[in-house]
Amino acid sequence: MSIAIEVKNVSHSFKDKKICDNMSINFEENKIYGLLGKNGAGKTTLINIITNQLLCNNGEVKIFGKNIKEDNKVLNDICVVREREFYDIEYKVKDIFKAYSYFYKDYDYKLQDKLCKRFEINQKLIYKKLSRGMKTIVSNIIGICSNSPITIFDEPTIGLDAVNRQEFYSILLESYTQKNRTIIISTHQINEVEELLEKVIIIKNGKIEVDDYIDEVKEKSYHITGKKDDLNKLSILKDRKPIKSFGNNEVYSYYGEISDEDLELIENLNIELVNMSIQDLFINMNKKEEAIYE
Ligand SMILES: Nc1ncnc2c1ncn2[C@@H]1O[C@H](COP(=O)(O)OP(=O)(O)OP(=O)(O)O)[C@@H](O)[C@H]1O
């Protein structure tokens, strides 16, 4: 297993607000990652640190084994795409492609033209005049065609309609099967990308809450339902709060391993244990406890 990006003990604060709190992640080579976190969780901040656009307060980042602060050239192996990248530019779409393709040595110009046709992007148009979704598509085309060993898509479906969202992900997968590379997709829409991902990273309160293979995450994410007194006997639910209560029954959301003792109790006490989707896990992890209306 080779490591494409090593994030080691990275911490970063904006004033006294801690955004990254001693984060360590190894992004393996040639895998597709989903980077999840609610609004403001720190996904973009982490991406900016990885690409050396932001100097972190503590910790280090290595790209293919080289420290980004010591060897700037390793950044040539990374392509980051985001919809807001070229905003306000008066250039034509084709000029933007020309300017950005220059940075990537394996850029696929033929594929760029094919994708423009597929997504009905007129390259002669002024970029500024494109719709929001069209702008996103331009960024995504650069990301796909870059063939960069590390390609990061920061919210790649902003403004895209359902058809174009699906189309983008299916083309991305095709491109990945043609040429393996490390792809990171930062998103809130896990259900849209689930089929594509090999590994999932969930950030919460500046920490890495989940970093695992998607199948493992699915296997270890549960809704646990039963009578309050029975559920209180499970050690995995100690000090946790239910996500729902109705009468004497409660529902918990749980992510992790379950001990044999707890599994036995679950069976004997007739407690219901059902796997939940990663989207549900993500939502439950970020649920606020306080009610808005009393
Ligand atoms: N340059 C900055 N100065 C001060 N605070 C910042 C700066 N950049 C980001 N932040 C704050 O850091 C936090 C994390 O922002 P970030 O953009 O990394 O989150 P995100 O997970 O990408 O969110 P979203 O999904 O909404 O794009 C936010 O509270 C944001 O306001």
Q: Could you list some keywords that capture this structure?
A:
single chain; 294 residues; alpha/beta; Rossmann fold; 2 domains; four-stranded antiparallel β-sheet; 14 strands; 31% helix; elongated; binds adenosine-5'-triphosphate; nucleotide-binding; ABC_transporter-like_ATP-bd; P-loop_NTPase; ATP binding; ATP-binding
Placed side by side, the strands forming the largest sheet appear as 6-7-8-3-9-10
The tally of helices reads 10
Helix content: 25-40%
Written as H for each helix and E for each strand, in order along the chain, the element string is EEEHEEEHHHEHEHEEHEHEEHEH
Provide the gyration radius in Å: 22 Å
How much of the residues is beta strand, in percent? 25-35%
**What is the global morphology?**
elongated
CATH A-level architecture of the largest domain: 3-Layer(aba) Sandwich
How many structural domains in the coordinates?
Answer: 2
The main β sheet shows up as:
6 strands, mixed
Bound molecules: adenosine-5'-triphosphate
What's the name of the CATH homologous superfamily of the largest domain? Answer: P-loop containing nucleotide triphosphate hydrolases
Number of strands: 14
Query: What is the CATH class of the largest domain?
Result: Alpha Beta
Task: Determine the mean pLDDT.
Answer: 91
CATH fold annotation of the largest domain: Rossmann fold
Q: In terms of structural class, how would the helical and strand content be classed?
A: alpha/beta
Uncertain stretches of 5 or more adjacent residues: none
